[in-house]
Amino acid sequence: MAAPVGLLASALLLVTGASASVFDADLLASTFALLGERQCLPRDFNSSATQPVAPNCGELVGGSDPPAPCRGVQRLPLFYNCYVNGQGLLDGVADSTSFRSGMKAHNAELSDDQDWLHKTYQIIDDCVEKAADQGLSLPQLAVSSFLCLRWSWFADCDEQRAQSDSMDAVGAQRRVDFFFGQCPLSPSTLAAALETVSGRTLEQCSLNSSPTGNALQMYADTIQNVICLLDNFRNGNNLDISALENAIESSNAQNAADLLDVVEMCRGSKKTEDFVNCWADMGVFSCIFQEANQVASAFPSHCKLSVSQ
User: Fold this and answer.
1) Residue 239 β-bridge partners
2) E strands along the chain, which residues?
3) Which residues lie below 8 Å from residue 71, measured CB to CB, with a gap of 6+?
4) Among residues 246, 225, 240, which one has the least CA distance to residue 272?
5) Same domain? 283 vs 212
């Protein structure tokens, strides 16, 4: 994974307020089917360890109404509650550390590809740590961690395709949703710092309302909108990172520290467009931590679904 997920996790604060969603917690489509269609799975990938629990939980959650304690809950967290219980991943588990070990062991059965496993373990570390920081119950932590893993795989796939010049509509739409959303690193969240530093408003750069249309074209247009905000720090096609950093540090604006996080993580991007793409990469991960926690924290304590292996 090109995006340093561990550094992202340590740099970003999880926000628990309401926000527009970048990820769909009601989408039951198979994680691995979606990744496979986008050619983002290791060659030796084998999902047999998820059988028959995954399809049985999918059928349970996607069918009739759930038991009373589980009604009103989105389908994906219900699925992961069922899956974790069906796989016994909470059996005898006393804390987040032992759950994390079991989650890693379970995913180790899916592939022998060491690069993919290292990436997956790193994601699990970050996801479980972020969930644990929020004081979630173990069932809630499990839901949050699996949501976070699923969505992190999706975001990593977006990045893989972007780096190989094969960005698809799915990845483009997710980046557009981030830039026009309310994630911890979205422009709307960092507006005070961005507008102070740039001398321009989000509205002046057409970043105040979500566009519609072809996802790839929307993302291309969004890149130009963000570049508009950075225009005073451009030298041709390149971005003067030092000048931008100095302006942020001297601004004393709200959220300036979070904007500095973006600059620090994307410091290696010389071209302005590359900087915007890097911002999108790390920004989407900030959405993941936020949204996984929001969904899991609302999961009812008396809701428990399961199927037999």
Assistant:
1) 234
2) 234-235, 238-239
3) 65
4) 240
5) yes
Q: Is the pLDDT of residue 34 over 90?
A: yes
CA distances from 51 to 59, 99, 109 (A): 13, 20, 12
**In a shared domain, residues 255 and 160:** no
Same domain, 278 and 178: yes
The yes-or-no verdict on residue 244 having pLDDT over 60 is yes
Region 298-309: mean pLDDT is 90
What does the pLDDT average to over 174-182? Answer: 96
Length of the chain, in residues: 309
Do 116 and 227 fall within a single domain? no
Give the amino acid at 262: V
Structure confidence at residue 20 as a pLDDT band (50, 70, 90): low
Backbone Cα Rg of the chain: 20
Quick one: average pLDDT of 89-100?
96
* CA 300 from centre of chain: 23
Instruction: Tell me the Ramachandran region of residue 73: left when phi exceeds 0, alpha when psi lies from -120 to 50, beta otherwise.
Output: beta
For residue 189, what are the domain limits?
A: 171-288
| pTM confidence score | 0.91
- CA 292/CA 161 separation, integer angstroms: 23
> Above pLDDT 90, what percent of the chain?
89
pLDDT, averaged across the chain: 92
207 contacts 187 by C-beta, under 8 angstroms = yes
Structure-token pair, residue 72: 């009103």
Q: How far is CA 46 from the centre of its chain?
A: 24
